[in-house]
Amino acid sequence: MSLRSDGPAQGGPVPPSLIEPVPAPSGIRLSAAPATAPGRNPLTRLWRRSRLLAPLLALSPFVAAAWFVVRFNPTDRTVDPTGPCLWHKATGINGPTCGGTRMFYYLIHGNLVEAARHHLPALLAVPFLAYYCLRWTLGRFGIQLPSLRLSKGVLIGYGVFFLVFSAVLRNLDWGPLAWFDIENLDPRTS
Q1: Under the phi-then-psi rule, with left for phi > 0, alpha for psi from -120 to 50, and beta for the rest, what region is 110?
Q2: pLDDT, tens digit, for every residue of 49-106?
């Protein structure tokens, strides 16, 4: 018995043009490649499940830097494992990164005045970098802080300020700028 009215039912193959494609249910792979068991690698499983692992990994260089400046005080006149500042030794003037380690030392000890004296441009970037790190970390837990969008002009202006102040202005022995000149603490050159 046939449901069609145009003739009796026949048992032959159905032409491909009459078959409508049926989408595959979600979660089913249609490729011939063998599926790997999810979570087989313990590091992959740990990375996917731990929302705190990525922020901890991102924070580890700052913890190492804090340990270093607490262990080897960069403000005393003893030789540190990293040696003297190569830029200052070669040119005799402060370079773009001179004073950064001492700025970090004073920052973690809460002395903002000395931190500003040793590297003002880097100190001005700290609140912005801290906010970006906090926003990213909380975002891993589903907490969204407002986005801080700095224009291209602000970023370029900060870069120019960083270079001009760090390499030129704080090397001038004039008035208020002389306060930003930092001394070379290498005991071999004193």
Answers
A1: left
A2: 677 778 888 889 999 999 999 998 888 877 778 777 777 778 888 888 888 889 999 9
Do residues 136 and 55 lie in contact, with contact meaning Cβ atoms separated by under 8 Å? yes
92: left (phi over 0), alpha (psi -120 to 50) or beta: left
Output DSSP code: residue 29.
Answer: -
Is the pTM here over 0.70, yes or no? no
Task: Please count the CA atoms within 13 angstroms of the CA of 124 that sit on its side-chain side.
Answer: 13
CB 103 within 8 A of CB 115: yes
In a domain, 125, yes or no: yes
Q: Look at residue 78 and tell me if it is in a domain.
A: yes
Q: How many domains does the chain contain in total?
A: 1
Residue type, 133: C
> Does residue 25 belong to any structural domain of this protein?
no
**Looking at this protein, which amino acid is placed at residue 34?**
P
Structural domain includes residue 80: yes
Q: Torsion angle of alpha carbons 80, 86, 88, 94, nearest 10°?
A: -90
Locus of tokens 């005393």: 76
Domain encompassing residue 130:
46-180
